[in-house]
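Hi there,

I know you've been waiting on this one. I reran it after we fixed the sequence typo, so this is the corrected version. Both the input and the resulting structure follow.
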Amino acid sequence: MKANVFKTTLFLLCSLSFGGLLKAQEVHYELRMEKPQNHYFQVKMEISGVKDREMEVKMPVWAPGSYLVREFAKNVNLVIAKDQDGKELPVRKTNKNTWKITKGSAKRVTVSYEVYAFELSVRTSFLDASHGFVSGTGVFMYLAGATEREGTLTIVPHTSFKKVTTALPLDEGKGAFNYRYRNYDQLVDCPMEIGNQEEFDFEASGVHHHVGIYGPGNYEVDRLKKDMARIVESETAVFGENPNKDYTFIIHNVVNGQGGLEHINSTTLSVNRWTYQGAAYKNFLSLVAHEYFHLWNVKRIRPIELGPFNYDEENYTDLLWVMEGFTSYYDELIPLRAGYYTEGEYLRKLNSTINYVEGSVGTRVQPVAHASFDAWIKAYRPNENSANTTMTYYSRGAMLAALLDAKIIAKTNGEKCLDHFMQKLYKDFYKKLDRGFTVIEFRTALKEFMGENMDQFIEDFVYGTKVPPFEEYFGPIGVDVKYTGKEEASFGARISERSGKAIVNRIRAGSTAEEMGLSVDDEVIGFAGYRVSAKEVEGILKSLNAGDEINLLIARDDILLELKGQMGLYERPSYHFEFKDGEASEKLRAYWLRAQ
């Protein structure tokens, strides 16, 4: 009986909404999921107040925060438009993500379509019999030229789903699952978890936090409340204020966790369901710290290109190394300040990040500013040669953040740190101007804050690929840096077993393997006249010394080839970090780390 009352109430609400009570100039959406097992969301959007005889509706091609054109229109089925009397209107698709509707004199147009949703990630949408997840840009079309219109959304969950978790504010007085948005950006910046997820709340830094968790896992709610609150409080301390009154976490417990995606007052986290113990749990808290830090850095402190958004095409910026890189630096510094890492653990993590960056071939090829700009065509589309030509703006950006933090602390004798520069960006651009900054404005702000010309730093390490003098930066704040790279015999190819065959899947540029003519996807059959497995050839190659002869029999496109060469040498750059003794360095180190 309760289910029947529930369905009847929702029917009346939707009927009233679509029956003419919609305010002029608003866009109202209705979201249904009639058969979750077929993975289709049904969407209606009711549009009024358009005076032209034609109108266009569009589906975004990307999801803000994830810099790849994903072509969400590929999941849209037949689009139908009707006027206020139910008469069908002509609809013509004019490009990959645009539908033109000939409305004539119709005062109100209802657009209906289905969206196939079967990719569970933090940036895409999903629906099955267990739950639904909505990433707005892949589900909700928008009226071209009218993304500033406000409106409402009614969600009609399948009868087996009882909860909706979202940061979108309720439309007061309209009952459950009715929401209001101030513009299209807000609508699609509030992901939605629909199902029977576990929910709980906690307070931190004067902000109410709501959490919805889908999927079983080894988490403990009371522990999450306490630990997530400590992360929030430590990050709020960086900026001195928290800009939200409410914040929502959506957590997906799955087999293959995919990280997180930030939103203006919410985030979605995708993690392995058994991640809530031991070292994996600290990594989870680091992920919480990363996405929550984006509340300031990206969603408010941002390049001018990242909001308001152009949903039709790529939004290019040189500054992802600041947006993601600085955030990556803080996502390990914050758990240290919150008491989850020891100083030694944190130093090893920083050391590991720097060794990864400097030990990568691509870091000498692709400047981090270029990595930022080319995220759309490279970062999310790696191939077998990417390690030779690219460097992630996450890790190299984190390294540069650490260098700047160390420089600021040393220069001010422990009076200021990178926190204060972040506060300056937050105050000068978000608080005062309510907008993002240009590359020039960012460089000017850095120069003003540092009190010195930073052009050489930017040219060498941001637009160039030079190796930083790590001892000069970290020595004054209590860290001894030693170079530990050395020449060793190296073949330079990764060979793994695939369907019982020894297959080459990566080759380092300039390596012995490349000089011999080995290619990715070659099958290694024999070594020095003997048949070998993937494990055997790997062991043989590791046992060779520089100058030893190499004779491989390979198959390429079913053609047998013999490759010969000599084992070469390779020096992979690496460093060892350890804390110095001494009162002066310990003072600055203590200020830098602020470990609990």
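Quick highlight: The radius of gyration is 27 Å.

Best,
R. S.
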